[in-house]
Amino acid sequence: MLTTILIALSIIVLVTEVGLFVCHVVSLVVSFVSLHGTFKRKKDQSIHHGVSIIKPLLGVDGQVEVNLESFFQLDYEIDRFEILLCVESKEDPVIPVVRRLQEKYPNVSSQLFIGATNVGLNPKINNMVRAVAAAKCPWLWIADSGIYAQPYSLQEMVRCVAPEIGLIHQLPLVTNARNFASYVNQTYFCSTHARAILVSHPLDLRCINGMSCMIRKGALEQIGGLEKFSPYVAEDFFLVKAILDKGWKATMSSAPALQNHGRVSLRWFCSRVVRWTRLRFTMLTILTLLEPFTEMVPLGVAVAFSVHYLWKFPFWIALAIHVAWWWISDFALIHRLLHKYPSCKSFYMILPYWFRQLTALPVFLFALSSRNVYWGKQRYKLLFNGKAVSIYEDASRRLSKT
Fold first, then answer.
1. Residue of 61, 236, 245, 394 marked catalytic
2. What is the largest CA-CA distance in the chain?
3. Is 52 exposed, middle or buried (0-12, 13-18, 19+ CB in 10 A)?
4. Lowest mean pLDDT across 204-208, 218-222, 336-340
């Protein structure tokens, strides 16, 4: 009986290995087909869709002004977009930054909304509802404060507009690594995270990151508006699900979203991964429990054990073969995603890459030890229906959601 079970498990592991090899290949192919290929430096006069850019802001880090200014510098018809900036409190230090940019770019239509509207638990939605209600354009581009917009980003997103499209998202990348922790962050987003999104794209699966998304305003109104998703911490997951359930399609822009964070530490990176893992665990419990077997090291050990058990193949040689093909395919994808950005050097990612791979399982196990997450000024306990309850936490201990 035990022998039968071990044989069955070994076969399942090997099938998983083959399946993930296919996913690696597919992600690389999709990156060539769908990314970086259609950029045009000049404005396309045929593009005329109006876009309201919603920017939820909280505090100041070293790059917030650079990120905000990039939206004022978009290469798009000046009368076809507006920037709506949202701040929770009149004491927020980002307000002078916003005022300074509004004075510097008076020809760009922009408006600052100060003060959140309490419609539910989610502080990001509370911060944005007034701006969304005031938006004049049929498309809403919601972009986090840590996103840097390339001049052609809006053009490329608008090229995806079609009658059946309700949501356009961007692949989030990191291109400005400055220290070891930021390189760890970069390798994660340009390999593991990117692969999941790239593989899901041609299959129309619901794997979309909410850092930068453009939503059809009519589709948002059809599903009840932003307020409907205020009970959720992972509002982007449920918002996307609701839009697709109404029959709308989602697609990915050829221009990636560039994350540009001022302060990056290993604790900050791990806190992001832990928070996202806990969110997935409460929404997609079974799939989340299988996640370790989509990582290089846990799957490699399982594969090496399986081939040794089935065919007496040397354990360490099998593990070395697995690690070699995984590493080569990951760095091929990293090179493909970052080749347009000369400042990105693959050589500097080698040690951070291995750090991320070797710590993936411990971080995952730590994430499963609790259902509490930090977000903004508050701490939340996640419920298994995707919702959360607020737990008071002193602001000095918070870890911001970025």
1. 236
2. 76
3. buried
4. 204-208
